[in-house]
Design goal:
This protein has helices at residues 37-59, 66-87, 92-99, 102-115, 117-120, 143-152, 163-166, 168-181; strands at residues 4-8, 19-21, 136-137, 194-195. The chain has 203 residues and is mainly α. Bound molecules: heme C (HEC).
């Protein structure tokens, strides 16, 4: 290398000492030492590790990332909490919990797409049936009220009853999904019914 003199710093005592680089800034000079092997192997090791890590977790995706493990544990905890709450019966609160659980909401969306879109349209903006994304509800906006109207239907108005066909668990999932689109105000069928006054945060 051209920027240092190959002059040992001191040789009087018989030892080969550190080389000092030629340049100097504000009176500070630097040694030109070979890095210790433990340091170099830590560097090489971490490069190899990062490559393997990338391949296992991001290319082949055979490992579970910490944040995925965390999400799975959170979900298991939410399921357990929900099971405890549901033991004393369904409530607005149990539906609010379900609406926070991505797999339930996804299941509900799949059911909605299969059974409900012909009358409420894909994004819930309404056609034969009312717009489910606005803040106005004919039969009430509380989750328990939605559960009832989806379960029993409104025969006179052409809303089928779903409890027998779908079973309670799938009706609950579809209600959880509806809670996630409620209030998103997708422009569609004009508002029907009364404005929603239910506050999910209230006890
Ligand atoms: C055959 C058409 C049809 C299908 C299919 C249908 N609905 Fe309806 N739905 C209606 C009609 C019509 C109403 C309006 C009832 C009324 O005005 O009393 C309604 C009302 C509702 C309401 C109450 C809205 C409010 O403003 O209170 C909810 C909630 C609802 N439907 C959810 C669903 C879900 C969930 C599904 C699928 C599982 C579904 N509907 C499938 C026609 C349908």
């Amino acid at each position: 290398m051209s920027d240092h003199k190959d002059i040992p710093a001191a040789t009087d005592d018989g030892y080969v000492h550190d080389f000092i680089k030629e340049h100097e800034f504000d009176g500070i000079q630097e040694f030109d030492n070979k890095l210790p092997n433990w340091w170099l192997w830590t560097l090489y090791g971490s490069i190899v590790f990062s490559l393997l890590y990338w391949i296992v977790f991001h290319t082949l995706e055979i490992g579970t990332l910490p944040r995925e493990r965390h999400a799975a544990e959170m979900l298991a905890a939410q399921e357990a909490q929900l099971a405890r709450a549901a033991a004393s019966g369904l409530s607005n609160e149990t539906f609010a919990m379900m609406a926070g659980m991505a797999p339930r909401v996804a299941e509900g969306r799949a059911i909605f797409v299969q059974y409900c879109v012909q009358c409420h349209l894909d994004d819930g903006r309404g056609s034969v049936g009312p717009n489910l994304t606005d803040r106005f509800w004919v039969h009430g906006c509380e989750p328990m009220a939605m559960y009832k109207v989806v379960s029993d239907g409104v025969a006179a108005k052409g809303m089928p009853a779903w409890l027998n066909q779908l079973g309670p668990s799938r009706v609950q999932a579809v209600v959880a999904y509806m809670l996630t689109i409620q209030g998103t105000d997708v422009p569609g069928k004009p508002a029907e019914g009364e404005p929603c006054t239910f506050d999910p945060a209230a006890p």
